[in-house]
Structure formats: structure tokens, C-alpha cells
Design goal:
There is one protein chain. This protein has 28 helices and 18 strands. By secondary structure, the protein is α/β, with parallel strands linked by helices. It is elongated. A hairpin with a 2-residue loop joins strand 9 (about 370) and strand 10. A six-stranded mixed beta sheet has the order 1-3-4-5-2-6. Helix 11 runs parallel beside helix 13 (about 255-270), helix 12 (about 225-245) crosses helix 13 (about 255-270) and helix 15 (about 280-290) runs antiparallel to helix 16 (about 295-310).
């Protein structure tokens, strides 16, 4: 004997749990829904802005509970609720006759019982499709055939869909914007899953863990449906707590905030200490960045103070976490500082989303970045990684339309993608760079004593008179004073209302002492790279650092990229010597960099070990 085939509605109609009904039993729109469903005419409902599926199910379960426990209007007495999950509906086209057979059987049953039916679907597509060739559209055709029958009531749940303009739907449906449950109701709904999660994972979930999961999902994953994410976060944290426990004991592990934070750290790639709500430590920030960035101590201190204030959230704001406009000459370290901030705050280089503008860019949707070795449009990158540094280089190259788009981000903390969906920037730090105002800063720098390129090799070797030539006149100016100097130049290019949404940080030209530190850091990095890649031990004479710093100082007005400049003045000599050694088939791995006899250029050569020891004395 053949087994009875389960019907379409047995397979795809989700049962509504009464346990889920309790958190939303007092939702203010329940009575409104009952009133509309009870009408003689236009008693179907189109519910817009519906949130996560779990909230949809809880709301409909609350409606079902209301009809059972409270006095119901005559039109809804003994009503049967069917929640049909169209997102799971996947049948081959050849089963269309089975769909119609099951639907006709349901209609016959309803008529026989003289019963009302409230039919709920979670998307509008079945009722607006016209092809009737796919199972979902064919089901929609059948549903439309009973839309005027008095026993049928329809509720369409539309999470992201705008209000349809169809006259057909307007004739039969009442449109209502769903009122999002309160935070307390959502947390109560999370708690309703406690027994289910505890039994599955064999853990203990204390009351405090539910609001913590909700807050973490809302705070760190704002681009997602954070209620569903909060549930997944609890589920994952419970699994991790179970995995990290001693199963030889009978005591069940307790899920803690550390479990939640460790899961989020994996999801977001944020440092665990960041997720544990450690306060921003400005002293540590300044000390760490001083070790990487030279010549901009005042700028680093000012940025640290602003980040500290932003972290305390002392004022209500809807823009990004913090916004900066780095204004100053080219090749002074604006992008390097942005990279250092990203590394300090988020602990990995991929937290820097970098866009270099050209005049060809006219809209946000044209902007792309290279992240994790593949190109990605900017808005998608921010949606996936909202906790990041967004570096917008050469912002003065933007078109007026693009400037307006960026101003919207700075003012309101979001942008609209190509599908008109919001991308949240409220947890992003936006750093813009510009060379506007450079002339003002350079003019101040040129007030230094006349620079004279007459140093000979002995001065470089003994470090005589070098620093006197490079006296830095801008050390006497504070950040506010420098900002006042360049404000008029910035306002001539950007509007005042654009500038008010970011903190302007002036960058001074690099002085000799800073360039010397930078050259030392560059050669230190080069030394590690040569040893790792080629097993070459690099040694340099001390005057090489001073020579490179002095050359960079004299040529700073023409240098656009310090790395490109070093390519011409240092790296090319090393490359040439390595290739020449390969042809000679030498076996020395000791490479020495020094100045030539006149002290006017770099010379490098492979030498024996005892010669290297002399230079290390």
C-alpha cells in the first residue's frame, strides 16, 4: 500500500510556536491587525518594513494567541493560520499539477468546516507575477483566485520591499508599516530560545548574556539583521563554551561575554581587546604611533584626543565614528599615519580601505578598493567591514556631485548603494587627505635660514652643521594656529558646511631630524627583507642615513612619493649590485652601503665579514 504523500502545506507551512508568542503578546499593532482582518471589505494586509524572520514568526504567533485567548470578532472565530514560508519553496515545474491538487483540497476542507483562514506569505512575488510557469508564481495564481472569497484573509510580510503601486493590490490590501519591537521585547524573544540552546549545547545561559549578545550584534554588525545575528552569536558562543569545557565533569559550562567576544573577533577580524570594550588609552596610542610616524607629534596628539572624545560618545551624532581632513604637502606621511591608526585600532592591515581619487570619479558607486588582494566596490567593502579606516586620498580631486555624496556620509553616517539600500558608516573612521593649503605651510617653512647645499663628506661623516641648515620654523605653531593659516585656502575649495563635518589636521613639512628617523626605519625594513628573501646581511655606514635625509630635505618640494624617491637614490644601487654578484658568482652575503669618495652618491658592494665588522664598531 502506498504511503500517503505529505501535502504542499504540510511541507512548507511553518507551525507557529506559542512559546514565541509570549515576548510580543502586548505588541501595540496586534489589535489593529485583528480589526483590519475582521472587515467585510479590504481585509487583506500588506505589512511593510518587516524585520528578521524570527520576529515575523513571533508576531504571527502572538496574533494566533490573541485570537485564541481573547474575545475574537465573529469574522475571525475559529480561524486557521497558515504561515507559508516562500523562501523554502523549491519544486520542479513538473509538479504544478500537485500544487493545484493540494490547494483545491485545502479549499474544499475550509468550505466543509465553514472555517476562516489567515494565509501568511513572506514575500509579494507570488501575487504580482504573471508568468505562471514557476511553482511560486503558479501558487500565486491560485491564491489570487480566492482573494475575493469571504473566508480568506491574506497577510503579506515584506521585509525590504517598497510599497507596491499595483492598483490590484491597492483595491484589496491595507498597507501598514510594521512597528519594530522594543529592545526589551527583542531581548525577551532571545530568551525564549534559552531552553532550546541549553539542551542542544549542554550549557548554561544566564540572563545577562542575552542583552550582551543583542548589544554586540547591534553595535558591531550594524549592516546585518542584528536580531538574527544575535541569535547566531548566542548559538556559536554556546558551541564554543561546550567545546572548551572539561566533559568529564557533570557541571555545565556557563556562556560568558568572553565567548561572545571571541566569536565576534573571528567574524569581524577585530582585536579581542577592542570587543571587550577596553577604554581608548590616549597615552598608549600616542606612544605607539610616535614609534612609527616621525615629525607629526602634535598631529598625533590632536588625533588621539579626538578619538578619545569620540569613544566616550559625549554628544549625539549620526555621522561616522570620527572624521578627519589631513591637510598638508605631499609626501609628509598623511597616508602612513592613517595606516598606523588602522593597525593600532584594529590590529590588521586590511582594516585600511584606501581610495585615491581622480577627476574621473563622479559617484560613490564608481569607487573601488583593493582589499585582501581583490578589487571590491567601496560601499560593499564598508558594508562587510564597518569597523575600518576609510582613507580618501586627494579629496580635492572629487567632482562636486561626489563631494555632496561624501558630505552625506559625514553628516548622516550612511550612503545609498546602487540598489538604494543604506550602507552604515557610523562605526567607520573617515580620513580624507588634501594638499590644499600646502602653499601656506610651505611659505612658513621657507622662512627658515637659507638652505645651502655645500656640505662635504666630512660634515656628513661627523654630522656637523647638518641640523642647523634644516631648522624647522613650524615647531613654534600649534595645531589650531596652523589650522587658522590654511582655513581660507580650504574654504576657497570646499564649502564651509563640508568642512564642519570633519576635524582638520594640518601636516607640516618634514624636518631633517624626522627624515633621518624615516630613513633609518626604511633601511631597517630593507635589511629584514634582504635577509629573508636573499639571505643577504645588509650593513651601512652612518653617514648614509644623514646623506639620504639631507638629499630628501633639499628635494622635498619635488618628491611625490618617498618610496619612489628611495627607488632612485638607494634601491636601484642595491639591485644592480645583487644582479652583478649573481653574474660574478660571488659567495659573500655581506652587502655594505656607503658614500662614494666625493660624498655625492650611494655606493654599495659585497665585502668579506671582517670589513663589515669595522663598520659596525
Amino acid at each position: 500500500m502506498n504511503e500517503k504523500r505529505p501535502t504542499l502545506f504540510a511541507n512548507y507551512a511553518k507551525p507557529l510556536s506559542q512559546a514565541n508568542a509570549l515576548p510580543l503578546k502586548d505588541h501595540p499593532q496586534l489589535q489593529c491587525i485583528v480589526d483590519i482582518l475582521s472587515r467585510q471589505q479590504r481585509h487583506h494586509i500588506f505589512l511593510t518594513n518587516c524585520p528578521a524572520k524570527k520576529i515575523q514568526l513571533a508576531f504571527m504567533a502572538s496574533l494566533q494567541q490573541r485570537l485564541i485567548t481573547a474575545p475574537a470578532p465573529t469574522a475571525l472565530q475559529n480561524a486557521q493560520i497558515i504561515y507559508f514560508d516562500t523562501t523554502r519553496f523549491d519544486l520542479p515545474s513538473e509538479e504544478l499539477p500537485d500544487i493545484e491538487r493540494d490547494f483545491r483540497a485545502l479549499c474544499t476542507e475550509i468550505r466543509a468546516k465553514d472555517q476562516q483562514i489567515i494565509f501568511i506569505i513572506n514575500q509579494i512575488k507570488p501575487l504580482v507575477s504573471h508568468d505562471n510557469k514557476t511553482p511560486l508564481s503558479y501558487l500565486g495564481k491560485l491564491l489570487k483566485s480566492v482573494i475575493t472569497e469571504p473566508q480568506w484573509r491574506f497577510i503579506i510580510l515584506a521585509p525590504d520591499e517598497p510599497k507596491p503601486t499595483s492598483p490590484y493590490l491597492a483595491e484589496f490590501f491595507t498597507f501598514i508599516a510594521f512597528m519594530d519591537p522594543t529592545q526589551a521585547e527583542k531581548i525577551a524573544l532571545l530568551k525564549s530560545a534559552r531552553t532550546q540552546l541549553e539542551e542542544f549545547h549542554q550549557v548554561t545561559l544566564v540572563d545577562e548574556i542575552f542583552p550582551a549578545a543583542f548589544e554586540m550584534a547591534n553595535h558591531y554588525l550594524p549592516h546585518s539583521d542584528y536580531f538574527d545575528t544575535a541569535f547566531e552569536l548566542l548559538d556559536s558562543a554556546a558551541a564554543r563554551a561546550n567545546a572548551n569545557t572539561d566533559h568529564t565533569t557533570e557541571q555545565k559550562p556557563i556562556v560568558t561575554n568572553n565567548h561572545l567576544a571571541s566569536i565576534l573577533a573571528n567574524w569581524t577580524h577585530l582585536p579581542l581587546v577592542h570587543l571587550q570594550n577596553a577604554p581608548f588609552q590616549i597615552a598608549k596610542f600616542v606612544e605607539t604611533l610616535h614609534q612609527r610616524i616621525f615629525g607629526h607629534d602634535a598631529a598625533i596628539q590632536a588625533i588621539g584626543s579626538l578619538l578619545q572624545t569620540a569613544g566616550l560618545k559625549l554628544r549625539a551624532k549620526s555621522g561616522p565614528h570620527c572624521s578627519f581632513l589631513f591637510a598638508g604637502p605631499a609626501c609628509v606621511g598623511k597616508a602612513a599615519l592613517a595606516e598606523a591608526i588602522a593597525d593600532y585600532l584594529f590590529g590588521h592591515k586590511n582594516a585600511l580601505l584606501r581610495v585615491n581619487f581622480t577627476r574621473l570619479h563622479t559617484s560613490l558607486n564608481q569607487l573601488t578598493i583593493v582589499t585582501e588582494n581583490y578589487p571590491l566596490d567601496l560601499l560593499t567593502a564598508v558594508a562587510r567591514k564597518p569597523y575600518a579606516i576609510l582613507l580618501l586620498e586627494n579629496i580635492d580631486q572629487c567632482s562636486p556631485d561626489l563631494i555632496e555624496d561624501i558630505k552625506t556620509i559625514l553628516a548622516y553616517g550612511y550612503a545609498l548603494d546602487s540598489e538604494q539600500k543604506k550602507v552604515n558608516f557610523q562605526h567607520t573612521i573617515v580620513i580624507m587627505t588634501t594638499t590644499i593649503g600646502t602653499d601656506c605651510i610651505v611659505n612658513l617653512t621657507d622662512a627658515a635660514p637659507e638652505k645651502n647645499k655645500t656640505l662635504d663628506i666630512l660634515q656628513l661623516v661627523f654630522n656637523e652643521s647638518v641640523r642647523d641648515i634644516a631648522l624647522h620654523p613650524l615647531q613654534q605653531f600649534s595645531i589650531p594656529e596652523l589650522r587658522d593659516e590654511i582655513t581660507s585656502a580650504l574654504a576657497a575649495h570646499f564649502s564651509y558646511d563640508f568642512l564642519q563635518y570633519s576635524h582638520t589636521i594640518p601636516f607640516v613639512s618634514l624636518d631633517y631630524a624626522s627624515l633621518e628617523k624615516i630613513m633609518y626605519a626604511k633601511i631597517k625594513t630593507l635589511t629584514k627583507r634582504l635577509f629573508t628573501q636573499f639571505n643577504i646581511e645588509l650593513t651601512y655606514a652612518p653617514e648614509v642615513i644623514r646623506f639620504l635625509a639631507q638629499e630628501a630635505l633639499w628635494q622635498r618640494s619635488t618628491i611625490k612619493s618617498l618610496d619612489n624617491w628611495l627607488e632612485q637614490h638607494l634601491y636601484c644601487y642595491i639591485t644592480h649590485e645583487i644582479l652583478a654578484q649573481a653574474e660574478r658568482k660571488d659567495h659573500s652575503n655581506q652587502l655594505l652601503i656607503q658614500l662614494n669618495e666625493t660624498g655625492q652618491s650611494i655606493r654599495c658592494e659585497f665585502i668579506i665579514s671582517n670589513e663589515t665588522a669595522l663598520y659596525n664598531l
